[in-house]
Specification:
145 residues, alpha+beta, two-stranded antiparallel sheet
């Protein structure tokens, strides 16, 4: 019984901390989040808004707008976010991909180098409370994915 209470409290506190809405509030607001398909016969209901995921970062310079970074995301396990920094001068773009666990904690990062190789940070291992208990050694990798 005590374990069930602890798990229930943990679940609810995690949802509150991450901003997840309760199922009750979602059903109450469900009628306002309706989109119709092109043929107007099919109604799709979205209970939650998708997270804000920027696709690129642009800055205004003296010579116009320049893209400083492009972002892409992969939701298969482990979760990953890829950032591409264009060099703009014909050299290879710098690429960084960070892998995360289901709690959003970084597991490791792979970065491209100027000579075409890839550097991988040491893999992080967490205990049940979220503290880092082991950090692997950084090394070279053969591919960036």
């Amino acid at each position: 019984m005590g374990l069930k209470i602890i798990l229930c409290i943990t679940f609810f506190s995690y949802n509150l901390l991450t901003g997840a809405e309760s199922p009750v509030s979602e059903k109450r607001e469900q009628q306002y989040k309706v989109e119709y398909a092109e043929n107007l016969n099919k109604k799709e209901v979205f209970l939650r808004k998708p997270p804000f995921c920027p696709q690129s970062l642009n800055v205004d310079t003296d010579v116009g707008t320049t893209t400083t970074a492009n972002y892409s995301y992969d939701v298969s396990f482990p979760l990953s976010a890829k950032t591409t920094f264009p060099t703009g001068n014909g050299d290879p773009d710098f690429v960084s991909r960070t892998y995360s666990d289901g709690m959003g904690r970084n597991i490791y990062t792979v970065k491209s180098t100027s000579n075409g190789n890839f550097a991988i940070t040491g893999r992080l291992v967490y205990d049940g409370t979220g503290k880092v208990v082991r950090k692997g050694q950084s090394s070279w990798a053969t591919s960036g994915e």
